[in-house]
Amino acid sequence: VLRRAEAPAALTPRLRTPLAPKLVAPAVKPAKGAEKQRGRLTVTSATASDDGDERTRSVAAFRRRTQRMKGVVEQKERLSREVVLPETITIQELANRMSERGVDVIKLLMRQGQMHKITDVIDADTAELIATEMGHTVKRVAESDVEEGLFDAPDADDALQTRPPVVTIMGHVDHGKTSLLDAIRRANVVSGEAGGITQHIGAYQVTSPLGGLVTFIDTPGHAAFTAMRARGAKVTDIVVLVVAADDGVMPQTVEAISHAKAAGVPMIVAINKIDKPDAKPERVRTELLQYEVQVESLGGDTLEVEVSAKQKLNLDKLLEMITLQAEVLDLKANPERPAEGTVIEARLDRGRGPVATVLVQRGTLAVGNIIVAGSQWGRVRALIDDQGANCVHAGPSFPAEVLGFSGAPEAGDRVAVVESEARAREITEYRDRQKREQAAVRGTGARSSLVDMMSQLKATAGLKEVPLVIKGDVQGSVEAICAALENLGTEEVAARVLHAGVGGITESDITLAEASNAVVIGFNVRAHKEAREASERLGIEIRYYNIIYNLVDDIKAAMSGLLAPTLRETMLGNAEILEVFNISKVGKVAGCRVTDGTMERGQHVRLIRDNVVVHEGKLSTLKRFKDEVSVVQPGQECGMAFENYQDMRAGDVIECYRVEEIKRSL
Ligand code: GDP
Ligand code: MG
Q1: Whose CA is nearest to atom 10 of ligand 1?
Q2: Do 204 and 115 lie in a common domain?
């Protein structure tokens, strides 16, 4: 596989520019070649007789010569090929793809004044010029094309079959999501097997009382749900929104509603804990109205059911509703095709190696398939269902543990079956490289820190927000912090609390922060080890406080930073360009005289031609004679150059000014 990305970047710009214009007139220096040939003629051919010369020639050369003498001009009639060009290519490879000799390509480049070895890497633009020059057509392909056709190939309508719905349970913390998942699972497992469920699996299937299966997946949080969606995996068909009847609609309930709505996934409201004496299911219904969720009993179209995870009340009814909703959605997939799916979770198992829970979405996954997920690939060694039993196939909506990956993929990675190991390697290597490049771009700098946030968001118009994830030791202080932060908000800036909760900072807090570029705040709590590692890895800032006042102060400062600063311009002086010099290595330098005020290096400048501003930028060089100076006084002459701008002309006026930022605060 070509390591295309590693082409020396410096090569390309040097190459591209001189080649383009010269190609129009390729035979620029024929004189030298002619001279050379004549030289060779005098030394060898002139002394040798014609016959003797003929004998040393090869058969092919002889044939060529006779053809030439017969006047056959088919030597020019080469096959024109369609050459596939990646973003970068070696000269050797380019020559191969054109079925030309490498030396011919090198010669062509040499004629443009470019010296190259056959192993040198050139960019696609240059390669295209060469190929067209040699009479071929090109097809440019991007490196990302290796992923082409991996997902979402359409299926014929008659191949589609009904598949089970995939359900995610969401809701506020402690409203009983885990309990409900467990209760449904336990109620559904034949009693004899009940004791057997020990291992945790991120997804499982149960049978609905109306017949048919229902798949439940356990995403660790709303952020995970959205993160999966962000990566292009639409996993969930139906969201069950759990709301505790004794607690009502809480912030994460609202968050879940917006996540589900954003994904365009229908919701079923499960009002949980109705066994509790202080349960007020009616209150839940009316509270939901505020968030545009109108349940059936209030005349809306959102299905609802009162349940108790603890007492296993109405679980069947919930399953029935899911089946009904699924019927409305008319979910279908083609089982007779290579599988596609999504990684629900993955881990490294000490005994079994990388284990990924994969939800198959289309097609059928089978033992022996070669699969890719993210930057990992493998051959499926075993498929294990939610009961811990080995299976040979996994069809649509079937969750299974997959053994055989080379490394653990990430939750949310899309899984696809590919035809060969080579393809799998090509794809994962490409993704790996991309990941590395992205990491390099991101650098070591933190991605979201309060300081960064100011500069990042400054550019965006409208209401600016400081997204925060807040964890505290007790509910009281968390509420106090949220209230205090809310009061800070103005029309222009506001703190947006993505999530506030009690307890240590967990890995899922970091994921949530990552998804929204938020800063995590710990009030009298600390981050778990995994969370700390994740925050370092992802560059998410965690700030610890033990005094609310300090916390609020810092956030206030960050928010003040988001207030667009007022810019004030101070005029420094004007200069007139007398002459423009072209200095090698430096570029264009304007020789000027300062007409009034002063010129200062590093300050902002405008280039004015006929009273029109033609360029705004900064001064890169300011010289008096040979010396670099910081200020030039009126009447003096000086040399000036701009950052990233060359087109100055004699007679232009350079205006120098200082820009001051005046910070605003709340
Ligand atoms: P999660 O944070 O949404 O996953 O909530 P959990 O499933 O961990 O439940 C939080 C608490 O609520 C636990 O102590 C459960 O025992 C309790 N709980 C869950 N469902 C019910 C229920 O239907 N009735 C009662 N009384 N308690 C419940
Ligand atoms: Mg839970």
Answers
A1: 174
A2: no
* Distance between Cα 168 and ligand 2 center (Å): 13
322 CA from centroid of ligand 2 (Å):
21
- From residue 430, alpha-carbon distances to 89, 91, 97, 127, 619 in Å are 15, 21, 21, 22, 41
Question: Using one digit for the tens of pLDDT, what is the confidence trace for 203-219?
Answer: 889 998 888 899 998 76
Q: Based on the domain organization, do 128 and 268 belong to the same domain?
A: no
Best of 174, 240, 508 for a ligand 1 pocket test (most atoms within 8 Å of beta carbon): 174
Residues with CB under 6 A from ligand 1: 171, 173-179, 272-273, 275-276, 308-310
Domain span at residue 312? 164-330
Predicted local distance difference test score (pLDDT) of residue 197: 43
Q: Distance from the CA of 244 to the center of ligand 1, in angstroms?
A: 8
Average pLDDT for 101-109: 90
* Number of domains forming the structure of the chain: 5
Same domain for 531 and 583? no
pLDDT tier for residue 540 given thresholds of 50, 70 and 90: confident
Alpha-helix runs per DSSP H in 466-577: 475-488, 507-516, 529-538, 548-562
Residue 198 has what pLDDT? 41
Q: Tell me, yes or no, whether 455 lies in a domain.
A: no
Pick the atom of ligand 1 nearest to 242's CA.
Answer: 3
Atom of ligand 1 nearest to the CA of 175: 3
Q: What angle do CA 503, 509, 512 make, to 5 degrees?
A: 150
Domain end (from 282, 312, 330)? 330
Token pair listed for 92: 């050797």
Question: Does 390 share its domain with 372?
Answer: yes
Q: Whose CA is nearest to atom 22 of ligand 1?
A: 273
Q: What is the pLDDT of residue 226?
A: 67
**544 and 422 both lie in a single domain:** no
Ligand with smallest separation from the Cα of 200: 2
- If DSSP codes are grouped into helix, strand and coil, which group holds residue 410? coil
Is-above-0.70 flag for pTM? Answer: no
Residue whose CA is closest, atom 14 of ligand 1? 174
Residue 485 · residue 545 · CB < 8 Å:
no
Give 333-380 pLDDT, tens digit per residue: 999 999 999 988 888 888 888 999 999 999 999 999 999 998 899 999
Angle between helices 177-188 and 315-329 (to 10 degrees): 90
